Amino acid sequence: MPSQTSNAAESETQESTARKQKRKQHCEKGTRKLSDESIQQIGICKYCKVDIPTVHASTSGLKNHLVKRCKSSPLYGGSNENESQAVLTNETMGQGNALVPHIFSQKKCELKLTRYVVIDEVSFRAVEGNGFVGLLHELQPRFRIPDRKKIAGFVYDIFLEEKAKIRSVIGEQRVSITTDTWTSIQNINYMVITAHFLDGDWKPHKKIINFTKLTSHNGEEIGKMVEVFLREWGIEKVFSVVDDYAAIDYLKRRMKSENSLLFEGKYLHMRCVCHILNLIVKDGLKELDSSIKAIRNSIIFIHSSPSRLNKFREFAVLAKFSITSTVSMDVKTRWNATYKMLEVALKYRRVFERMAEEWFPFINYFHEADEKDKKRLGPPVADDWENAKTFVHFLKKFYDATLELSASKSPTSQLIYQSLIALQVEIERKRLDDSDPTLKKVAHAMKLKFDKYWGNWDNMNHRYLLSISAGGGLCDALFDDVDAQNEEEQLLDISNEVDKYLADEIEKRSNQYSNLLEWWKGNENRYPIISMIAKDIFAIPSSTSLVNGKKNISNEVDKYLADEIEKRSNQYSNLLEWWKGNENRYPIISMIAKDIFAIPSSTVASEAAFSLGKRVVDPFRSCLSPKMVEALVCTSDWLTSLARLLLAWEKDLWILLGAV
């Protein structure tokens, strides 16, 4: 016992001596000698440049200064605490305000700082700013702030780490991919590839897997690039590709040779629905160009100076509007901005009409020549306002459809056919309506563009019919209001064509699925469209469940097709929640539904879905190497939650539109 006590005391003495020596070294490193006298030394703190008198051969005065007075010192404010000592702090990032132990960690702080740079999209140089450095020193003096080069290295480390995590999950899924292009301010083109899939918990995922410099716009070259990226990520099962490039032809050939495609790739390629809707709306806008310009010029006038805006508000008050009234200007490349501009301007129609009668500067503005030396259109007359009114009402259906189809938080593939048919019916009604010649002309222009892409059912991807079936038996909705146009007969013809193709696929595998083929031959005429999902099930070549339980599968299909359609309830308000709850009831069909619901209908998110312009890389990222740009874009996408993304898109959109 005495020896153990002696050893413990000796060990404690050594530790205490080591701590004192370490403290002394820190103090000595924190000063440099100015003069050397026999009794007293004068030191200067290298952090705050303050003179420190001290007794010869003693560092106590220096220590007190560094620990208690110098806020720039790494020893200030926490020198008596061990780095591993926990302190109680509020859990601000959680749901409550519970006190939790917090231990300072240099590595954790570096990680948080790196995530801040990535998620909030700030430049690497920001971590070296005087204000930022001062703030962090005040918050945690012990934190040694890494420079921008280290931050760049940390970003790439996180990129590789997160990439490995996602790769381990995504390689097991059948994914749908989208491609799009972005441009930097140096006119460097980038191609972004996004993977869409549903996980085992039926949660939708949208992951940017590549953001790479585009060296060629040749379709085959793009296809080869996509092929390399898919191999790099270990993606072997591709369900659909949504893009507008000829790259799909090369991918189809390569994947078909590897037997990794369903339907031999016949329905692999899908167009971006929102992009085509943009083209249709733009053609309609051209027909109302003069009325839109007259209203736009009026809004440009009131925003040309503060005094003019104030005068507009005076007229607005006379018409019993708020003193803060205003009308936002549009952005010509975003038709939703034009839609919103017209919608708000119509509310102030009486204000603009009174201005055109009483305010001479407003009247004279339209007699002046514009920058092209042409007389300005306006002010808007009654016909212009009526055209805008009817067009806004008509355009709202396209606005709502674009928002719905560009959503990334919920499945959209089951909405495409019914949305397109509803829009087609609306266009046809306006085209046949002789009471409004102007809108009839608009509808005619939009119909020409609509028919170019979707006028023939053969030009559309029939796989979306499967999503309608999986979406709750909405096939009857396809035939609402379209009998006069023989759409039902056309759909049934397409259904029979797909039936024949899929029956041929089953024939090829008849030795393996003989009893399934017999079942299908006895039931193929019962459900002309919904039954296609059953055939899609049989066309999957490598399902263990199919091999081991053919009879069970046919019973499952019978059950699915015969079961009554359930009405949506609070419990199953979400389509994916319904399928998750019925996964055990339809185990094989649910596998197909999961692939179908992962198909995106748009290559871009909601905010960008209204634009025909190019997506642009911001100036900060444009000055970086393509390798680092990819790391930043991908990592930001992976680290940022979907809810945060949607909030940011909504915020940017309202700022853009100048919402009131």
From TrEMBL:
Region span, Disordered: 1-32
Signal peptide region: none
InterPro entries cross-referenced by the UniProt entry: hAT-like_transposase_RNase-H, HATC_C_dom, RNaseH-like_sf, ZnF_BED_domain_contain
Pfam families xref list: Dimer_Tnp_hAT (PF05699), hAT-like_RNase-H (PF14372)
MF terms (GO), sorted A to Z: DNA binding; protein dimerization activity
Keywords of the record: DNA-binding
Domain hAT-like transposase RNase-H fold: 406-459
Protein name in the entry: BED-type domain-containing protein
Annotated organism of origin: Dorcoceras hygrometricum
